[in-house]
Design brief:
The protein is mainly alpha-helical and 216 residues long. The protein contains 8 helices and no strands. It has a single domain, classed as Serine Threonine Protein Phosphatase 5, Tetratricopeptide repeat, CATH 1.25.40.340. Helix 6 packs antiparallel against helix 7 and helix 6 packs parallel to helix 8. It is globular, with a radius of gyration of 16 Å. This is Dihydroxyacetone kinase DhaL subunit. Pfam families: Dak2.
């Protein structure tokens, strides 16, 4: 019997927290070069709070939308910095996108990734090329849309999404920051990958490995 969509999403957030713990020190080192040096710590706090909040849900009765809404509240309550509202808005948009849906087929995964990226974009008023996490989330969402349109298999779909995310994170090293604290450095931000983009790529890899594994 296949795992329910609700449990898949709960497991997805567990994996996201695990990957952030693994990358926490690296993310803070990256942030130390162009920011406050606390990005890894901030993300760790946020996703630990998400999983603490999700632990109070009855996964046998909760909906996929409930999981994403709870994650949004948990992250926002724990992280007051700019990252908190950005991810909270993304997760809330994803909750809306999955309202009344109980299957995590690739179309639902496409809609979830698209909603997260759009929520982050709308809340942060940023765009691709600003050297932010959007340089990862937007290409990943576009790859998901193209993957569904091309009728890719599940492995090929997620490979395309992960590749788009990884390439987007790497590309930020060639960009001049125009948003956030790194924007104060202008040209001096060149040569440094954006820590928010690097953490976003790690999160998307965790999503690919943990979510949307429900039988279609």
């Amino acid at each position: 019997m296949s795992e329910t969509a609700t449990r898949v999403l709960a497991r997805m957030f567990e994996r996201m927290s695990e990957v952030i713990e693994t990358e926490k020190d690296h993310l803070s080192e990256l942030d130390g070069a162009i920011g406050d040096g606390d990005h890894g710590i901030t993300m760790s706090i946020g996703f630990k709070a998400v999983n603490a909040a999700l632990s109070t849900l009855d996964l046998d009765t909760a909906s996929p939308s409930d999981v994403l809404s709870t994650a949004a509240s948990g992250f926002l309550n724990a992280v007051g910095a700019s990252t908190g509202p950005l991810y909270a808005t993304g997760f809330r948009r994803a909750a809306q996108a999955l309202a009344d849906r109980d299957q995590l087929d690739l179309a639902a995964c496409r809609d979830m990734l698209g909603a997260i990226s759009e929520g982050i974009r709308d809340r942060g008023k940023a765009q691709r090329g600003d050297k932010t996490m959007l340089d990862v989330w937007l290409p990943a969402a576009e790859a998901a849309t193209a993957g569904v349109a091309s009728n890719l298999s599940k492995p090929d779909f997620w490979k395309a999404v992960e590749n788009a995310a990884e390439n987007g994170a790497a590309a930020t090293a060639t960009m001049i920051a125009t948003k956030g604290r790194a924007a104060r450095l202008r040209e001096r931000s060149l040569g440094h990958a954006d820590p928010g983009a690097v953490s976003a790529a790690a999160l998307i890899k965790a999503i690919a490995g943990a979510s949307c594994t429900q039988a279609e």
